[in-house]
Design brief:
Layout: H1 6-12, H2 38-45, H3 60-73, E1 77-81, H4 84-93, E2 101-105, H5 110-122, E3 126-130, H6 136-140, E4 147-153, H7 165-175, E5 179-182, H8 187-190, E6 200-204, E7 218-222, H9 236-239, H10 250-254, H11 258-271, H12 277-287, H13 290-310, E8 314-318, H14 328-334, E9 342-347, H15 351-360, E10 365-366, E11 376-378, H16 390-395, E12 403-406, H17 412-424
Parallel strand pairs: 2-3, 2-4, 4-5, 5-6, 10-11
Antiparallel strand pairs: 1-7, 6-7, 8-9, 9-12, 11-12
Length: 427
């Protein structure tokens, strides 16, 4: 079968066992790999061979997960990392260094915002944050001669703004910049950013890719779509000779997988934020049910959002799948099979009332997580976005009373009843 469906690729992917081989992807728990020829080993260090030499850089189990994620997203290559934060950092530092500038949406996840605005600023990379609702001309006016990328999320966490891919892909192309998209909340089951103009896709695989709150991991996926040479001297690391590899030029040598190869050959090699084989195995297992889980997450989230809209103790509800939501049209355009499993809402009475409602929940867990099979809640203003100022929180779409629900795959009637009893006890 040449053109397998997305669902079949989730289950089978690229791991096809030979006769008498394990049906399930094995865990290769080895740091090193034995060779019998010194020239073979030298070829690894010259990037002339793609074989494994050291598990900080590559591992057979992790390789299969990378290939599967690239397959599901429609990319050319992928690099697994130790966390979603590492994936974000690598996606930027692969093409930006001290003295460079990046444009980013202000509606991104709080941990990502802090990574960009605080930590990477210490590395000398400057960021300008914009409101996604700004016009294309206004956003383009923020670009500088040293701007190296545009960073956005398909589905903003937790503002739940849906990215207008048409607008942002046009902006990126006009500026001659790669469009980097965090697709964590949407997943390739609901949206495939490369089909809408993205050049690089990243994930916190900790979330829906794993789906069971059992592993921490990240992924950077190369779309193979950006012409690094056409940008002239804007991306020297991609097109100029690399002294650490005897003058090798990444884009000239590796073409449409050059961005991914450069991450592996430089950042993964030197920083070592490596995904473990066990994590890769568990994430690979999780992806086998991604299509089923995202369908159920989306169904449950829509029903819970509709229910919360009618509850007398609820002040407001945000969910892109609601016909009354401001992101509904974009959601139907770019996520036609479901708007994901995340809802935000506010309880009448403000922040304290919302906190009381969360504490009253019984089935639903109060945890620092999203994308689990179990329903869970969090108040971003006091947790994931706590490092942001009040003004920065509001720019990111975070109201003080906002509660984020990651709707699980339990029976929807049980979920609704849990929120009903919790809200009724706030009175």
């Amino acid at each position: 079968m040449k053109n397998k469906s997305f669902e079949t690729n989730c289950v089978h992917g690229n791991y096809i066992p030979e006769n008498a081989e394990p049906q399930v992807l094995p865990i290769v728990q080895s740091t090193v790999y034995r060779y019998y020829n010194t020239e073979d080993l030298a070829a690894l260090f010259n990037l002339q061979s793609a074989d494994n030499m050291y598990s900080r850089i590559s591992n057979p189990t992790t390789n299969k997960l990378e290939e599967k994620m690239a397959m599901l997203e429609g990319g050319t290559a992928a690099v697994a990392t130790a966390s979603g934060q590492a994936a974000t950092m690598f996606s930027i530092l692969n093409i930006a260094s001290a003295g460079d500038h990046v444009l980013s949406s202000s509606s991104i996840y709080g941990g990502t915002y802090n990574l960009l605005a605080v930590t990477l600023k210490k590395f000398g990379v400057d960021f300008t944050f914009f409101n996604q609702d700004m016009s294309a001309d206004e956003i383009m006016a923020l670009a500088q001669p040293n701007t190296k990328a545009i960073f956005v999320e398909t589905l903003a966490n937790p503002a739940l703004m849906v990215l207008d891919f048409d607008k942002f892909s046009k902006i990126a192309k006009k500026l001659g910049l790669p469009l980097i998209v965090d697709n964590t909340l949407a997943t390739p089951a609901l949206c495939r950013p490369f089909e809408h103009g993205a050049d690089v896709v990243i994930h916190s695989t900790t979330k829906y890719s794993d789906g069971h709150a059992s592993t921490i991991g990240g992924m950077v996926i190369d779309g193979g779509t950006f012409d690094w040479a056409a940008a002239g001297d804007k991306f020297p690391g991609m097109v100029e000779s690399d002294a650490s590899y005897h003058g090798l030029k990444f884009y000239e040598t590796f073409g449409n997988v050059a961005y991914a190869v450069k991450i592996r050959a430089q950042l993964l090699r030197d920083i070592g934020a490596t995904m473990s084989p066990m994590t890769a195995y568990l994430t690979h297992q999780g992806l086998q049910t991604l299509h089923l889980r995202m369908e159920r997450h989306s169904q449950n989230a829509l029903q819970l959002a509709e229910y919360l809209q009618t509850h007398p103790m609820v002040d407001w509800v945000r969910y892109p799948g609601l016909k009354t939501d401001q992101a509904y049209d974009l959601s139907k355009k770019y996520m036609p099979d479901g708007a994901g499993g995340v809802i935000t809402f506010g309880v009448k009475g403000g922040r304290k009332a919302s906190e009381k409602a969360m504490e009253n929940l019984k089935l639903t867990s109060l945890v620092v997580h999203v994308g689990d099979v179990r329903t869970c809640v969090l108040q971003p203003a006091s947790t994931s976005h706590r490092q942001l100022s009040d003004e920065e929180q509001l720019k990111a779409g975070i109201k003080p009373e906002l509660v984020r629900i990651s709707v699980g795959i339990e029976n929807i009637d049980d979920i609704k009843e849990d929120f009903n009893q919790a809200l009724n006890r706030v009175k």
